[in-house]
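Suppose you are handed a protein chain with no further information: no name, no annotation, nothing but its sequence. What can you learn? This example shows the usual starting point.
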Amino acid sequence: MPPEPQGICAACKKPASDVCGGCKSDTYSVYYCGQVCQKNDRPNHKNACKDAQLEKALTRIAEIARQAYLNFRETTWDIPVVRIDQVPDDKTKSSSHFSNFPAHMATSQNVREAALVAMHCDEPQAHLHGLIKALTEGRMPVEIEELEVFLRLISQKVTISREGAGTNANWPNYRHAILRIRSEKTKTQWIIDITGAQYGIRRALWKWRDYENMHMAVVARVYELGYFKYLLDKASKIQGMDGLSYRVGMLAAGNLDQAITKWAVGHKKLAEIIGLDEEAYQVDKASLLESMDTAVRSFVAANNFNAQFREAKAYDRKYPGKSANEIIMIAKTYCE
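A reasonable first move is to predict its three-dimensional structure. Written in structure tokens, the prediction is:
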């Protein structure tokens, strides 16, 4: 007995039950009533099929990158917070440069994620550079760029009050950093926004047009993949507090790359994860994220940078503003 029709044939518009296996997903299916119609519709469906397959892969890449960075920020949390948003005052202290994320101040999962990534939108591109390259290497026909953009009116604003350092807000003066992915075959574009939670942007992957219409006011700058890694690496070599903060972050992120390499040796190339069936993908994703998180946790447990930070503070007192100005000059030199 033939299966019950579940859709409409894309070619002849009759009831159909066969699905294009190339681009089938939980949210997207193209139906055909048989092989003849599927073959006849191939010229019309070819590009859409490629884009749907690529979008499925990019969704997984964005998912892994976003969770990896949330884990990284929570493990390497270094802000002595007094308050997040409207939560009552409650100080968190630590004997190390690193401290526990004040989860008790986050009134919901959304607030937690927003606080973790607030004012750190350039870091994922730097710290996850190796992860993104490993996930997209091989047969994925895409071009990846790093963008700085200004957003439209936002649905959420994060304010973090730091112990002894006043209040910082992520709006309206911050440029937002995102990734633009372009298909080499169809020229379709997507956005990966790893830190959008701070502005109420919950999804990590967007079609370019949707993101542009809903969130983006203007593109400020476009860089080749690797710009933010270059910038933070240069900044980490500067003396003073600004430089040391970047240096500690880059050292911690180096453990991510080591964990990725080690995991790939024991399991499979990261790019192969993206094409697995859903059950196998979830297993490998969890294993990879756990390996990365364990590596960073071990680094944090083994290192205390208090002495270096005392020296950096003394340098800043002696040469006020020098570190910040040098970082600005690095960015200007690269852009020119």
